[in-house]
Design brief:
Helices cover about 35% and strands about 25% of the residues. It is built from ten helices and 14 strands. Helix 4 runs parallel beside helix 5, helix 5 runs antiparallel to helix 10 and helix 8 packs across helix 10.
Length: about 350
């Protein structure tokens, strides 16, 4: 694949699928003289009516009432899997096995065993695979990571991050349904965990406490991750209270604060010993802070370069996050139907 338009299929028709497709349409409208960057050619849902309504909304030519038809569509280069995470293994696996490249929403899968199976399938079929961790592709988050990697705050000592929604969510809601991988951790906590591991890598030890619902999923969870370097990360996620969604990274020579929405920031502040605070602000040209176009562009860049994975969202990093999420669930006692977690 070189500079031609990348042809996308959309698997699922929920809110995140709509947001991603809207950004792809924007990329399609702003293509080069040689043609658009992206083309959305098909959408699939388990409901044909839902797929047709979605296709009509976004001007998509084909609507399928089953996932298999989308996976087998040879006109599709890459499929964006936007189902709830309990279905990621089945949906992404179907597409990879049919020869499609895949961008799969987070949490990547229910557990690391399923994640490893998808990675193995991608390798077996020589297909590109990436977790849709849009935070890692955000230009301002990339700038923050570069500052940390360059030693701007010295050796990282602590990371703090939170993500909570006020709710309340009824028992029938997917966020409280064990069969759909419900709970705060996989839906929200994946962001604080991924943020900490972006900066520090996989932790050497994990401790956690949680408040569980009657259904057996976590309503709120606090985790303390530690590294052999002595660094610590204090992380929190909740379905029972709307948190500030802030993050802070403290090092031996300074600190970086993200005042709100750390996973899609519009600014952060660098504090260094003996210097005035320095504010870094998002470039207006990068679009709205909630734009998903950066991950889409990274997928298309990688496909055109013939890469099997993205250096911004490497598969080993995704597996490492899944191992940590498994370890947290092991500590708090959350299991999903038919699942056996290997203690970590």
């Amino acid at each position: 694949m070189t500079e031609q338009s990348v042809r996308w299929g959309i698997l699922a028709t929920g809110g995140i699928a709509a947001a991603f497709t809207a950004d792809l349409v924007t990329l399609s409208d702003s293509g080069s003289a040689a043609g658009p960057d992206a083309e959305v050619v098909a959408v699939a849902s388990r409901s044909e009516a839902s797929a047709k309504a979605f296709a009509e909304r976004f001007g998509i030519g084909r609507a399928y009432g089953d996932w298999g038809a989308l996976a087998e569509d040879a006109d599709i280069d890459v499929v964006y899997v936007a189902t709830p995470h309990a279905a990621h293994r089945a949906a992404a696996g179907l597409c990879l096995s049919a020869g499609r490249h895949v961008l799969c929403e987070k949490a990547f899968t229910l557990n690391v065993r399923e994640a490893e199976e998808l990675v193995a399938l991608a390798k077996e079929h020589d297909r590109f695979l990436m977790e849709a961790m849009w935070m890692y592709c955000n230009p301002l988050v990339r700038r923050l990571k570069a500052l940390v990697d360059d030693g701007s705050i010295g050796e990282v000592r602590t990371v703090q991050a939170d993500f909570g929604l006020a709710g309340p969510f009824p028992a029938a809601h997917r966020l409280r349904d064990p069969a759909q991988g419900g709970g705060a951790l996989l839906d929200l906590g994946v962001y604080p965990v991924s943020f900490a591991q972006l900066l520090l890598g996989e932790p050497s030890d994990v401790t956690a406490k949680a408040v569980l619902s009657e259904e057996g999923v976590d309503l709120q969870t606090g985790a303390l991750l530690s590294w052999d370097s002595g660094a610590l990360a204090s992380l929190h996620c909740s379905l029972t209270g709307g948190t500030a969604t802030i993050a802070s990274v403290t090092g031996s020579l300074g600190r970086i604060d993200i005042p709100n929405g750390f996973f899609h920031p519009d600014r952060f502040v660098l504090h260094r010993d003996g210097r005035d605070p320095e504010e870094f602000v998002a470039d207006p040209a990068d679009g709205p802070r909630n734009s998903l176009k950066h991950e889409a562009r990274e997928v298309m860049r990688a496909l055109r370069a013939g890469e099997s994975q993205s250096p911004l969202v490497p598969l080993e990093g995704t597996l490492a996050v899944m191992r940590t999420l498994d370890a947290i669930r092991d500590r708090i006692g959350v299991r999903y139907p038919g699942e056996l977690l290997t203690p970590a």
